[in-house]
C-alpha cells in the first residue's frame, strides 16, 4: 500500500497501517524502487537507520528486504537520530535512508534520504521514486544473489566526531553547568547519554525513555505547549539552560536560565558569529523566514549571507554550492560544513554549552544582542488553494513593499516584513511576520491573517516544517 500524498517535497511522510497511506509491503516496494532510482547494482551498499516509532522496525526491515532482494547490501545502524544517520552516510560515504516522521504524531512514519557523503537528494529523485514505486515498475535482476544486512553501532563514532568539532574544555571549570535535556520520548533519549553523559555537567533528563506513542508531549518543540515541561524544570532546578529536541533529534530548541525560549534565529546568529570568528569572510546560509537580525550579524562579522528556500534538501544544496561554513533555519535546524553540511541539533547544543561555559555569562545575556526584532512566531491556516491565497495577499499589499516569490510570498516594507508559504509537509499556509516595533508587527500580522482566513477555515497553530 502506497499513496501519492505521502510523497512530500523533502521526504516521505504519512499515516501507517489500516486507514493510512502505507504499510510494510509498500516499504518493500520503496526499497526496490530506491535501488533503481539511485542506479545501485549488486555489491553496492547503503546505510539504514530508524527512530523509536512502533512501526519503524517493521517498515525498515521490509525496506531492507526490498534493497537486498536487488543484490544490494544494507548497513543497518538500528536505532539512531536523523543526524546520526547523516553522520553514518558521511562517515561511511554511503547513500543513507532514515525511517522517521520527525515531529509528526506516533501513528505516522516516513523516510528521509541522502546520497553518499550525506549529500541531499533532489526533488527529481523523490518525484522519480514516487513514479517508480506507485507504478510498481522496479525490477529485480534475474538470478541475482541477495544482498546482506550488516548490523553496526555507530553511536560511539558519532559522539567522538561531535566532540572533535567543539572545544569543550571550559565545561570542566567549577561550578559545573546544570543542563535540562528534554528528549520528548524521542531519539535524543538514545543519543544524550553518549554525547552529554560523559561531560562534566549536571544533566537533568526529561522523558528520555524511547516511546513512539509520545505519552508526555508531542515531539515538536516548535509548539509552545511542548516546551512547558523544560521551562518548568529550568526554574525548579535553577538550571543554566535547557535543550529540547524533536522526535528524531535533528532539531534542538534552547531555553535560557529564566525559563524563556530563545528564538532559533538568535541561536543561528550566535553560532554564525562564532564560526565567522574562526573563518573570517565565510558564508552563512539562512532561509526565507530567518530573522533579519541574522543577516545583520553575519555582515557585521565580515561574512556573506546566502538565502535558501525552507527545507533541509534545499539548504544542504546551497551550503554545498557556496561552501558555506554554517547554516540555520527558523525551525531550529542547524547545518555545519564540518558535519558534511548536514543539520545536527546536538552539535548546535554543544556549541551553546561551550560558549556558555567559556563566557561565564547567562544564556539570556549571550543572545541579547541578537534579538533585534519582534516576531509573530509561525501562524498556520488551513486553506483550499495556497497559491490563490498568496496572490490575494500580494494584491492587497501592492505598492507597500518589495515582493519576492522565491519561497512563497515575501513582502518587505519599512521596518517590517512577512512571508506566507505553503508547508512542505502539511496542508497548511504558514505566516511569519517580523518588525522593529511590536505594534507594527501586530498590525501586519492581523491584516494578513484576515485576508488569509476571510474565506478559509481558521486553524491557528505555531510552527512546523
How would you characterize this protein structure?
The chain folds into 4 domains: 4-153, 3-Layer(aba) Sandwich (Alpha-D-Glucose-1,6-Bisphosphate, Chain A, domain 3); 158-258, Alpha-D-Glucose-1,6-Bisphosphate, Chain A, domain 3 (3-Layer(aba) Sandwich); 264-370, Alpha-D-Glucose-1,6-Bisphosphate, Chain A, domain 3 (3-Layer(aba) Sandwich), CATH 3.40.120; 374-453, 2-Layer Sandwich (TATA-Binding Protein), CATH 3.30.310. Helix content is 35%, strand content 21%. It has 14 helices and 22 strands. The chain has helices spanning 24-38, 56-68, 82-92, 123-135, 155-164, 188-195, 228-237, 264-278, 292-300, 312-322, 345-359, 363-367, 386-396, 438-453; strands spanning 12-15, 45-50, 73-79, 96-99, 108-114, 149-151, 178-182, 202-206, 241-245, 252-255, 261-262, 283-287, 304-308, 326-328, 334-336, 342-343, 374-375, 379-381, 402-404, 409-413, 416-422, 429-435. The strands form 4 sheets. It has a 6-stranded mixed beta sheet with strand order 1-5-4-2-3-6, with helices on both faces. This is Phosphomannomutase. Residues 405-450 form the Alpha-D-phosphohexomutase C-terminal domain. It comes from Auraticoccus monumenti.
Amino acid at each position: 500500500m502506497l499513496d501519492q500524498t505521502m510523497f512530500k517535497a523533502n521526504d516521505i511522510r504519512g499515516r501507517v497501517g489500516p486507514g493510512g497511506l502505507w504499510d510494510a509491503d509498500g516499504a518493500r516496494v520503496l526499497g526496490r524502487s530506491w535501488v533503481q532510482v539511485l542506479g545501485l547494482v549488486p555489491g553496492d551498499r547503503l546505510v539504514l537507520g530508524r527512530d523509536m516509532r512502533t512501526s519503524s522496525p517493521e517498515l525498515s526491515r521490509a525496506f531492507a528486504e526490498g534493497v537486498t532482494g536487488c543484490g544490494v547490501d544494507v548497513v543497518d545502524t538500528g536505532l539512531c537520530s536523523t543526524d546520526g544517520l547523516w553522520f553514518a552516510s558521511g562517515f561511511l560515504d554511503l547513500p543513507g535512508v532514515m525511517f522517521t516522521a520527525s515531529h509528526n504524531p506516533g501513528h505516522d512514519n516516513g523516510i528521509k534520504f541522502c546520497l553518499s557523503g550525506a549529500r541531499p537528494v533532489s526533488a527529481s529523485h523523490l518525484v522519480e521514486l514516487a513514479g517508480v514505486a506507485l507504478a510498481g515498475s522496479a525490477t529485480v535482476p534475474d538470478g541475482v544473489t541477495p544482498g546482506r544486512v550488516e548490523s553496526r553501532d555507530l553511536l560511539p563514532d558519532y559522539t567522538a566526531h561531535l566532540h572533535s568539532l567543539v572545544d569543550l574544555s571550559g565545561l570542566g571549570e567549577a561550578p559545573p553547568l546544570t543542563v535540562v535535556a528534554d528528549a520528548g520520548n524521542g531519539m535524543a533519549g538514545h543519543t544524550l547519554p553518549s554525547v552529554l553523559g560523559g561531560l562534566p555537567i549536571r544533566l537533568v533528563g526529561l522523558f528520555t525513555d524511547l516511546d513512539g506513542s509520545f505519552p508526555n508531549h508531542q515531539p515538536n518543540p516548535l509548539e509552545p505547549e511542548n516546551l512547558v515541561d523544560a521551562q518548568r524544570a529550568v526554574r525548579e532546578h535553577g538550571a543554566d539552560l535547557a535543550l529540547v529536541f524533536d522526535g528524531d533529534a535533528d532539531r534542538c530548541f534552547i531555553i535560557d536560565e529564566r525559563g524563556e525560549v530563545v528564538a532559533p534565529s538568535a541561536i543561528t546568529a550566535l553560532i554564525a558569529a562564532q564560526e565567522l570568528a574562526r573563518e573570517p569572510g565565510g558564508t552563512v546560509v539562512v532561509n526565507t523566514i530567518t530573522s533579519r537580525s541574522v543577516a545583520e550579524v553575519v555582515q557585521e562579522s565580515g561574512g556573506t549571507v546566502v538565502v535558501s528556500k525552507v527545507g533541509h534538501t534545499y539548504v544542504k544544496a546551497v551550503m554545498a554550492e557556496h561552501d558555506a561554513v554554517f547554516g540555520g533555519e527558523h525551525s531550529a535546524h542547524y547545518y555545519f560544513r564540518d558535519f558534511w553540511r548536514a543539520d545536527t541539533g546536538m552539535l548546535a547544543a554543544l556549541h551553546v554549552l561551550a560558549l556558555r561555559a567559556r563566557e561565564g555569562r547567562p544564556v539570556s545575556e549571550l543572545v541579547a544582542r541578537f534579538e533585534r526584532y519582534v516576531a509573530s512566531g509561525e501562524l498556520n491556516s488551513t486553506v483550499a488553494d495556497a497559491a490563490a491565497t498568496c496572490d490575494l495577499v500580494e494584491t492587497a499589499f501592492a505598492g507597500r513593499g518589495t515582493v519576492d516569490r522565491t519561497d512563497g510570498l515575501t513582502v518587505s516594507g519599512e521596518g517590517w516584513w512577512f512571508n506566507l508559504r505553503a508547508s512542505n509537509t502539511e496542508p497548511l499556509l504558514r505566516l511569519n511576520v517580523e518588525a522593529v516595533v511590536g505594534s507594527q508587527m501586530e498590525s501586519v500580522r492581523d491584516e494578513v491573517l484576515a485576508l488569509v482566513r476571510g474565506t478559509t477555515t481558521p486553524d491557528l497553530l505555531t510552527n512546523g516544517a
